[in-house]
Amino acid sequence: MSTQSGLKYLSNALATAEQLTTSSSFVDGIAPDLEASVRYAGVQLTQAAGVLLRLSQDTIAQAIVTFTRFWIGPEGGSLRLYAAKDVSAAALYMTAKLSFQPTSPRSIINVYAFLLSRDVSPLWFVNSKGAPSTPPAPEAYTLTEGGYLAQRVVLLRVEAIILRTLGFNTHVALPHTIALTYLQTLNVSSPDVSRRVFEHLNAALLSPQLLYVTHQPNALAVAAIYLAAREVGVKLVDVEWWEVFDVDREDLGFLVVAMRSIEGFARAEKEKWSGRALPMTVDELEAEVERRRMMEEGG
């Protein structure tokens, strides 16, 4: 991976063009659109689990970036070998452990058992019927002690695999604090702009263009500010202020378009998988690949 110049702790290792076009899953025969769908669901799963575990958004975002990085390039993880749900859980557990909010394997495993339960999950890509109107009984999703111990082994094993795959580089710089600094520099005091900036930065974690591994935090912060100011109607300085923050017009334009497209992508994914559960395990993924193969042969 290549790294832009800048302070070490304010920048990230970025994916190369080759890594973005040739993932391990693609090499193993997984269609790019299916990989994108599973990766998108995995990010949502990580976000939901982090919220239920009452982790900070910083910790959740770092776990999502780690989850995303794991699948990148031919040297990354393949969906034919590793379940998206297991990588999500391990990335969140590892990131929380390295933060000021460590959480136990049991807490992680219990939350994921709930979120992945077909009958009680509030997640649309797991439970197509929607979340139940009344709180489900714990028996509907609680693991047995044997089930917990088996999942604990998987959690710790996948954590080690993630670390090895990433070369033990767990550093993730986020754009949120940088964006606040830039807003102060631009003398923007509108709370509506600040809120929209953070909404765009959090939504960008779901981007199919993988914005957090293709652009540095300063560029993401600038694009979110530019877009938020336009949406709220706050006028910024007349000069090309983004150049002061080391972002050129071309990158800014790309990021703004990409951030605007996320809502449409999310809507399309929900329609695409309407009434069907997204494959979050290796067996489910293989079943989906086989279903597509049979449809192609029959069509």
Q: What gyration radius follows from the Cα positions, in whole Å?
A: 20 Å
User: What are the low-pLDDT stretches, counting only 5+ consecutive residues below 50?
Assistant: 1-6
Q: What is the ordering of alpha helices and beta strands? A: EEHHHHHHHHHHHHH
Count of helical regions:
13
Count of folded domains? 2
CATH topology of the largest domain: Cyclin A, domain 1
For this structure, the quaternary state is single chain
Beta-strand content bin: under 5%
Characterization of this structure:
- Helix content is 58%, strand content 1%.
- It is an all-alpha fold.
- The protein folds into two domains: 21-171, Orthogonal Bundle (Cyclin A, domain 1); 176-269, Cyclin-like (Cyclin A, domain 1), CATH 1.10.472.
- The chain has a two-stranded antiparallel sheet.
- Helix 3 runs antiparallel to helix 4.
- Mean pLDDT is 92; it is low at 1-6.
Q: Can I get a quick summary?
A:
This protein is mostly helical and 299 residues long. It has helices spanning 17-21, 24-27, 32-52, 57-70, 84-97, 105-115, 145-165, 176-185, 191-203, 211-214, 217-232, 249-272, 282-298, and strands spanning 2-3, 13-14.
